[in-house]
Write a structure and sequence with these properties.
The complex is a heterodimer of chains A (393) and B (322).
Chain A: E1 7-11, E2 23-29, E3 32-39, H1 47-53, H2 56-64, H3 71-86, H4 92-120, H5 124-145, E4 154-155, E5 158-159, H6 168-191, H7 193-199, H8 207-212, H9 217-221, H10 229-232, H11 253-276, E6 294-302, E7 305-313, E8 319-325, H12 327-339, H13 347-353, H14 358-361, E9 366-368, E10 373-375, H15 379-392
Antiparallel strand pairs in A: 1-2, 2-3, 4-5, 6-7, 7-8, 9-10
Helix pairs in contact in A: 2-3, 3-4, 4-5, 4-11, 4-13, 5-6, 6-11
Chain B: H1 2-12, H2 17-38, H3 54-64, H4 75-93, H5 110-132, H6 135-166, H7 171-181, H8 185-188, H9 190-203, H10 215-218, H11 228-253, H12 265-286, H13 292-316
The chains are: A alpha+beta (393), B mainly alpha (322).
Chain lengths: 393, 322
């Protein structure tokens, strides 16, 4: 049904459904979205410039702090790029430890997301229970790395801490608990009518659209496309560990829930296998402080999807240029496609469906609209421009 | 003179305004505590024994907060709606027999009056949303008015069931009828009970029908712009509404205020109401939120036929007792 006229409804940058500032302008006909215009860039943190000012060792800590949830994915990606430039490879045991921490992080990220998705559709009880059980994996991460959020496990040329044999039984015990709970939640989600009403056939993204719009990660796999950096371009020890790529053909928010639940179960099996087959040996190789000139690109399957880091070195102790492409950015065009034709009340769950992390995503570039020229500005000159503009106003 | 004084005391203290206010805070505490325990949280903990005074503390805190009014708001509507919502719910509560078998105010037809007051409270919320002139409030107000279209009719039809059985349009009359037969209406009209409970959940804007104040969609819905004393009044009237809904179910379907052994009617009544509150708190913790179109179509597709079926059964004499 059409009402013949559309109204514009702004969503964000401050909105309860979005924990981070981002703006979407919806064109609405009655209760149906006919067009959406995203406006990204509220959360620019100057992180790429900061990379250029620090040494390669200091940058490990900076990479860790790009995201509070996929902190391990960012450091893995960073150290792999630098290892590539240096021409060194992490020892086998270190590569297994990287897989274990990365998969633990995936479990924690996916359970966090499941909780948020439950909250977005108003199912707070499920949200509370999911987050309570998520503590189990946080405890394992703390046991292994000493930290709950920023694990600081990776370093250039290997890892910083070992997984000692005394902790393994505890880890296995917690994994069994998590497996049991995840299976239970899958049963609940599949059988709860209110959840099905709010998620089935909501935010549909057809496989061909998903591929064309370059969706990544669970969003892409929920449209039935088998795509996973761990399989397509194996890093760390992923070529030695057997695993299935979880996909679902529903193409809606419910499939995104199922894919993430399935990935939690798959990660649990991978960690079990990795703990069993972990080779012995050293944890890291020594690397020089100076990196020879060159460029490198590194890809990692972060919990949210494919993460790309690019580094350009000029032969000093600091990178000349550093670029981070987080998975959320790749999913924004697909997100806009999903939103069209949906109800206004479904906006929060569809937005949350791609597991957005806007703060990791935002970069800034100045474009002169008249000449179509791009330029970079330092903070002082940026401030001058802003002041000038406000005086004029 | 004596009887006037007694009436005033009844109205103001027991079982009138003061008593009802404290019961409302107590009910909010039970609701919060039960939902928190189901969700594996503690709920209120620090104020009073196990946080029993927390709702009162929240109320007093809100009274002391700054009272902001948006510049574009309709001043009169914005000021009057909190007062109106508080007084409407209180008025409706006077219709229930609590301390004895007669209510403070009771007349033939007060059941219809009650349904009318319930409708007015929702119109009042829609008006409050409209008067705040903020996008969230307006959407919330429209949603609450839309939701009313969904649940008001099945609620009215299902409440006609007990009235038909007892051949009385007064709540006190229905309670007396149940007391004289020694039977609870829920045994005779289980369908009507289910329909009324679902509709009252919607009336209270509880999950799965908390659509007008869906936090992740429209902040606090029609209540978004209210703060300070006005918000305090809205919150206390929401608590009173919770008391009203559980009293309604307890009176019409569970026999209401009757003496049971040594227990005076008020204790029996409160026990039954708290039981109904527990039921509603449990339901509110078990579901996700419906979308507004799903809610209205569900109400019209399932609850209205069920309610009509119940009334038809009563008219045909099923479960009818002379």
């Amino acid at each position: 049904m059409s009402y013949g006229s559309t109204i514009k409804v702004p969503f964000g940058p401050q909105h309860p459904a979005l924990k981070e500032p981002e703006h979407f302008l919806f064109k609405i006909d009655g209760d149906i979205i006919v067009n959406v215009k995203p406006r990204i860039g509220y959360n620019h943190r100057g992180i790429e410039k900061a990379f250029e000012r620090r040494t390669y060792i200091q940058n490990i800590y900076l990479a860790e702090r790009i995201c509070g949830i996929c902190s391990d994915a960012h450091t893995t990606c960073y150290v792999q790029a630098i290892e590539d430039l240096l021409g060194v490879e992490a020892p086998p045991r270190a590569r297994y430890i990287r897989v274990i921490v990365a998969e633990l992080e995936r479990i924690h990220s996916h359970s966090l997301w499941l909780g948020i998705a439950a909250h977005e559709i108003g199912f707070d009880t499920l949200f509370m229970h999911l987050w309570r059980d998520r503590e189990a994996v946080m405890d394992i991460l703390e046991l292994i790395s000493g930290n709950r959020v920023h694990y600081a496990m990776n370093t250039i040329g290997g890892v910083r801490r070992d997984i000692v044999s005394e902790t393994i039984p505890k880890v296995i015990g917690s994994l069994d608990f998590l497996e049991k709970r995840t299976k239970y939640y899958m049963k609940v989600l599949r059988s709860e009518p209110t959840v099905l009403k709010r998620t089935v056939d909501i935010g549909v993204l057809k496989p061909e659209d998903a591929v064309e719009l370059c969706a990544v990660g669970p969003t892409l796999r929920a449209s039935g496309v088998k795509n996973d950096v761990r399989r397509d371009d194996p890093y760390a020890a992923y070529d030695e560990i057997p695993f299935n790529i979880v996909t679902d053909d529903g193409c809606d928010v419910f499939s995104r829930i199922l894919v993430r639940c399935g990935e939690i179960l798959e990660s649990i099996n991978m960690i079990r296998y990795a703990l069993d087959h972990m080779p012995s040996g050293m944890l890291r190789v020594r690397v020089p402080m100076v990196v020879k000139p060159g460029e490198a690109v590194s890809r990692v399957e972060a919990p949210r999807g494919e993460l790309i880091h690019y580094v350009k070195s000029n032969g000093s102790t600091r990178p000349e240029r550093y670029k981070v492409r987080s998975p959320t950015l790749a999913n924004i065009p697909a997100l806009c496609k999903m939103l069209i034709g949906q109800h206004v009340a479904d906006i929060p769950i569809i937005l949350a469906g791609i597991d957005p992390c806007f703060a990791c995503m935002d970069r800034l570039v100045f474009v002169d609209v008249k000449t179509n020229k791009k330029k970079a500005l330092d903070f002082e000159s940026f401030r001058k421009i802003v002041r000038k503009r406000h005086e004029l106003l | 003179m004596q009887s006037m004084l007694a009436f005033a005391l009844q109205l103001l203290i027991f079982p009138g305004i003061i008593f009802l206010l404290f019961m409302a805070f107590f009910f909010e505490w039970i609701d919060r505590k039960v939902v928190a325990r189901i969700q594996n949280r503690y709920g209120p903990l620090y104020t009073g024994m196990s946080g029993i005074l927390q709702p009162l503390a929240d109320f007093i805190k809100l009274l002391s907060k700054e009272d902001l009014m948006p510049e574009s708001a309709d001043k009169m509507i914005f000021t009057l709606t909190p007062l109106l919502s508080f007084s409407l719910v209180l008025t409706a509560l006077f219709l229930f027999p609590m301390a004895s078998s007669r209510a403070i105010i009771s007349f033939e037809g007060d059941l219809v009056f009650l349904i009318f007051v319930l409708t007015l409270t929702i119109l009042n919320s829609a008006l409050a949303g409209y008067g705040s002139a903020s996008p969230y409030s307006i959407i919330g107000g429209v949603r609450s008015a839309l939701q009313m279209i969904g649940y008001e009719i099945p609620l009215a039809i299902s409440l006609a069931g007990p009235a038909f059985s007892a051949e009385s349009l007064s709540i006190s009359g229905i309670v007396e009828w149940q007391a004289s037969r020694g039977l609870w209406m829920i045994l005779l009209q289980p369908l009507g009970f289910i329909v009324s409970t679902a509709c009252l959940l919607a009336e209270l804007e509880m999950i799965p029908f908390d659509i007008p104040e869906a936090e992740t969609e429209i902040v606090a819905g029609w209540m978004t712009e209210f703060s300070g004393r006005k918000l305090a009044l809205f919150r206390v009237s929401k608590d009173l509404k919770m008391l009203l809904a559980s009293s309604l179910l307890a009176s019409l379907y569970l026999g209401g205020a009757q003496p049971l052994g040594l227990a005076p009617p008020i204790i029996v009544f409160l026990a039954k109401s708290i039981f109904m509150l527990l039921l509603m708190s449990l339901l509110r913790a078990l579901f996700a939120r419906f979308r507004i179109d799903q809610m209205i179509s569900g109400m019209w597709k399932y609850l209205i036929p069920l309610a009509i079926l119940q009334v038809m059964l009563v008219c045909l004499g099923v479960g009818r007792i002379k």
